[in-house]
């Protein structure tokens, strides 16, 4: 059986005929060693056809189609022109070797051309790629390199540009940075407390907040310089006059050691760095809130910005989170506990990252698992709405949050929640109402035109209704006339026979008459049975 090799280069499609190679008995290592020699390879493989791409845009489109496993019309025409024709009802006496199995399966389904993709074919195609510029005389090696470089840049640029997950990357990076900042701010604030605690140890018990402690360490610097004049400034920093007075009194009777001016300057600078980090952390959190409201408004309104961002970052993207079933989303973040439970045959975890939600914290211990399962179900719905809907609105997320609140009340107090169908109908009605309000604000002129059209349509509908009513009346009159015509001959026959009885009575008489046979003159079976029963009674 003849073997043809389809090669997709940056400059066009090429088809090679491998006529001097026998696949039977050939190992991959033997082929790999022989294909490096151009003289031997050119005798075994010859160029059967080549079609160049029309432009760089055409090359990019063909490359995208090949990467997705789709056969384009240009590739189909090229194969039908250069491959030998197969008669109807007969099998092809050749096969086409391709690099991508998906492309081969699509070619076979669409055209019926048999394709194969194995290690042997891939080694031959690697050799074709190695010696490709030697088979086409008009193609220079420099031109081929330029085409490969340009197509590679445009393909990668298009992939980055049309990446579905590119917006989610900002949220993923922001939540990772927030987590690291929390750790860094905590460790740095503890270092400030230890460092400044040698000089003013009583301040740790008075002020618990790390940010306020760093502020006070920068403001006070030397405890011996504090006096009652500094109480208003301290009160402005802390927001409490009593604590400000307590700080001044503690500074007077402090047991801490004195530090040199250089050490105090270093402590002051480090406290300023901690303050800057904490302020940057606040700004980053606000940025994360705005991004989450833009990307996943329903998930944000349901479960919060932080938990929603952690779910997206753990899944990899919003589309990956939308593809996850509710059971996977429920234990997302507890993979170690899950595999440990499967290995030891213990109890599997009930929740992962969802545990940080306020709903599970509010639920009782026996209902935490139920609440996690229900919340994961609603989170999967919200993520799918955010991922696949064209409009960005948080109406569905708010309604889903109301459902979770109702489910909490049902577990605690026994109050029956609303049905899911009713809640979704209310959400759709609210969404349509918002769209109508936007339409009223934007297009008053279009509303007037639509009113005129509706009036005209109403008039035409009224005319149609009147015509239909008249047609129905005429049809009923015709039917009545037909009925009268059918009933008249029956009445005439009844009068001719002189029978005043109803049809039912007539049927009964006919039955009695039929009970006597006209030929034999004997009575029917029913009368004989009646006589037998009377005789038995007399006996």
Automatic annotation (TrEMBL):
Residues of the Nop domain: 295-413
Keyword terms of this UniProt record: Nucleus, Ribosome biogenesis
Region of interest (Disordered), residue spans: 432-539
Annotated transmembrane regions: none
GO cellular component terms given for this protein: box C/D methylation guide snoRNP complex; small-subunit processome
GO biological process, one term: ribosome biogenesis
Stored InterPro entries: Nop56/Nop58, NOP58/56_N, Nop_C, Nop_dom, Nop_dom_sf, NOSIC
Alphabetized SMART domains for the sequence: NOSIC
Family as reported in the entry's similarity comment: Belongs to the NOP5/NOP56 family.
Record-given protein name: Nucleolar protein 56
Naturally occurring in which organism (per UniProt): Triticum aestivum
């Amino acid at each position: 059986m003849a073997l043809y090799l389809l090669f997709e280069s940056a400059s066009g499609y090429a088809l090679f005929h491998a006529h001097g190679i026998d696949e039977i008995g050939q190992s991959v290592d033997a082929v790999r060693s022989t294909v490096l020699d151009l003289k031997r390879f050119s005798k075994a493989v010859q160029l059967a056809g080549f079609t160049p791409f029309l432009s760089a845009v055409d090359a990019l489109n063909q490359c995208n189609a090949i990467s997705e496993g789709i056969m384009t019309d240009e590739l189909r025409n090229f194969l039908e022109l250069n491959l030998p024709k197969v008669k109807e009802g007969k099998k092809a006496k050749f096969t086409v070797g391709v690099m991508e199995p998906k492309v081969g399966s699509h070619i076979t389904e669409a055209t019926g051309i048999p394709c194969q993709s194995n290690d042997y074919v891939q080694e031959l195609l690697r050799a074709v790629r190695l010696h490709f510029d030697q088979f086409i005389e008009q193609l220079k090696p420099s031109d081929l390199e330029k085409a490969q470089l340009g197509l590679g840049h445009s393909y990668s640029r298009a992939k980055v540009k049309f990446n579905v997950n590119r917006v989610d990357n900002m949220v993923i990076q922001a939540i990772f940075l927030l987590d690291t900042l929390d750790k860094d701010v905590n460790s740095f604030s503890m270092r400030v407390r230890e460092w400044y605690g040698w000089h003013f140890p009583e301040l740790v018990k008075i002020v618990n907040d790390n940010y306020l402690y760093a502020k006070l360490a920068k403001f006070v610097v030397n405890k011996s310089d504090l006096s009652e004049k500094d109480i208003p400034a301290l009160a402005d920093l802390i927001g409490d006059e009593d604590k400000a007075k307590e700080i001044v009194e503690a500074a007077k009777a402090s047991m801490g050691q004195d530090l040199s001016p250089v050490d105090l300057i270093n402590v002051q600078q480090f406290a300023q760095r901690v303050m800057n980090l904490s302020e940057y952390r606040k700004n980053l959190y606000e940025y994360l809130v705005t991004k989450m409201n833009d990307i996943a408004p329903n998930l944000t309104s349901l479960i919060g910005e932080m938990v929603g961002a952690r779910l997206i970052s753990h899944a990899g993207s919003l589309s990956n989170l939308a593809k996850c079933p509710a059971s996977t989303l429920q234990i997302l973040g507890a993979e170690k506990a899950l595999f440990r439970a499967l290995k030891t045959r213990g109890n599997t975890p009930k929740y992962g990252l969802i545990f940080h939600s306020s709903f599970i914290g509010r639920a009782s211990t026996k209902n935490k698992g139920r609440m996690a399962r229900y919340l994961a179900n609603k989170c999967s719905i919200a993520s799918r709405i955010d991922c696949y809907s064209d409009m960005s609105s948080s109406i569905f997320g708010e309604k889903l949050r109301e459902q979770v609140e109702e489910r909490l009340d049902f577990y605690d107090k026994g109050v029956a929640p609303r049905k899911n169908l009713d809640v979704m109908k209310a959400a759709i009605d609210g969404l349509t109402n918002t769209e109508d309000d936007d339409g009223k604000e934007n297009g008053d002129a279009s509303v007037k035109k639509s009113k005129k059209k509706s009036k005209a349509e109403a008039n035409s509908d009224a005319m149609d209704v009147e015509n239909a009513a008249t047609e129905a009346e005429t049809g009923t009159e015709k039917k009545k006339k037909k009925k009268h015509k059918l009933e008249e001959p029956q009445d005439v026959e009844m009068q001719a026979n002189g029978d005043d009885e109803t049809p039912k009575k007539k049927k009964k008489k006919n039955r009695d008459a039929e009970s006597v046979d006209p030929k034999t003159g004997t009575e029917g079976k029913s009368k004989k049975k009646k006589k037998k029963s009377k005789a038995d009674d007399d006996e």
